[in-house]
Amino acid sequence: MNNIEVKNVSKKYDGFLLDKISFDVPAGAIVGLIGENGAGKTTTIKAILNIIKADGTVKIFNKDVKQNEKEIKQNLGVVLDDSFLSTYLTPKYINSVMKEFYNDWNEDKYYELLKQFGLPKDKLIKDFSSGMQMKLKIATAISHSPKLLILDEPTSGLDPVVRSEILDIFRKYIEEDETRSILLSSHITTDLEHISDYIVFIDKGKIILNVPTWELLEDYGVVKCSQEEFSKIKKEDYVSYKKEKYQYEVLTSDKNKIKKKYNISSIDKPSIEDIMLFYIRGER
Amino acid sequence: MIKGLLKKDLYNLASYKTTLIIVVLFCSIAIIGTDAIYWGSVIIGIIVGMISLSTFSYDEISKSNKYILTLPVTRKEIVLEKYVLAIGATILGGLLGFIVTLLVGNIMNYFRPDNLIDINIETLLATSVGGMFGISLIQSIQIPSIFKWGAEKGRIQMFIVLFVLVIIGAGAGFLLKQSGLSVDMKKLESILNNFGLVALILLSGLMYFISYKISYKIYKNKEE
Known about the structure:
The structure holds two protein chains of two kinds. By secondary structure, chain A is of the alpha/beta class. Chain A contains eleven helices and 13 strands. In chain A, helix 4 runs antiparallel to helix 5 (about 130-140) and helix 5 runs parallel beside helix 6. The two termini of chain A are about 35 Å apart. The mean pLDDT of chain A is about 90. By secondary structure, chain B is mainly alpha-helical. Chain B contains eight helices and no strands. Chain B has helices at about 1-15, 15-35, 40-60, 65-70, 75-110, 120-150, 150-180, 185-220. In chain B, helix 2 packs antiparallel against helix 3, helix 2 (about 15-35) packs parallel to helix 5 and helix 5 (about 75-110) packs across helix 8 (about 185-220). The chains are: A alpha/beta, B mainly alpha. The interface of A and B includes residues 80, 87, 98, 100 and 102 of A.
């Protein structure tokens, strides 16, 4: 069962093309959408939410998002990096407004979350720090207990302590009900290593990787070797390589295979960020 | 859902409370000082009507348009809400202007029996409705401009549209005069006296309706 199904979604802007993107967000999973700034993460999220008109189909809860928008959005919590209801309101006013939108808005839960996050009820949002604003956006997004959370860069610009707090909130949200899902875009990939079940990697409007996170962390490896050793490795055995000052760094998607085949003794474990950089900057 | 959007806009406008009180006070003083008391009602009406449009600026500053589209609300409802607010503000402004003028005039007459202000209810009503018509015309032009070009740019475009309308109106008048068609002014006056107010209200309704249709067409395909 998938909570989101994206099929062949395309969107063209001047100088940018989101090119036939397809991926799923299964129930019970956290999917991390990663990529450089401008790679197409936000465009993908906007297309999923029907904020922009894109080609292709998007199904949420097995229903076409263009035809069942209002019904679907009742069960959706959204956090956008740069946009909220109004910065001239207080959290108390946000409660008063949001209960008009969501049938299942839970006022007690909202105020409980505000308390938990240490957010004042009567202060104008524009006077909040960016961490406080993000916590408020998240509290607002989960107070109607939606089945699906879509979060665009929820941890950008926040310090490590707040980021870790926020990741805990997401973890708890998923644990509460296993039919829930989160689609989370971020360019801070270390956050996703800890929390996501799948990684979808977008580069220049195309998906170049869509794999379970454990696979990235377990199977991928970086071989550091001399030019001579590198010349022996066949092209089909590595993803890409980088030529450093004194050595070659080679990324493989099957470290056990390359270890055996070329009798390599030590292979480094790359972070998701390393893998991302190999894909973007590495050579083939 | 419209109720939620209305609440958001009204809370945003809450900061205008002081401005509104000052305007009403200022106009009240103006009413006391002058014989042209009817202007008070028009000014109050126009200011209240225009304040409603500043919700677009609040949305733009908070970049809330994108977020609102993620809520369970249709684009039709988003457009409709702005018109409900604008029409509500126009009616409120008209009523407020009418009541304040009537109240201040009568209070002054009570305290200053030697210098009576002559308030003609019919004229006051006509002035208030006239003011409301004026503001509904401005809103009907401005709301689609804002949906198309945004709150800041939309303001400039509105003046251009208004200017073009004045030119067209003046041109039509000039052509009418040149063509030698005579207009029976007396007949026109009597029609205006008898049906003027109703006609103005109906015309306002029609303008809002056309304006709403245009705005929806623009916003339906707009990407945030």
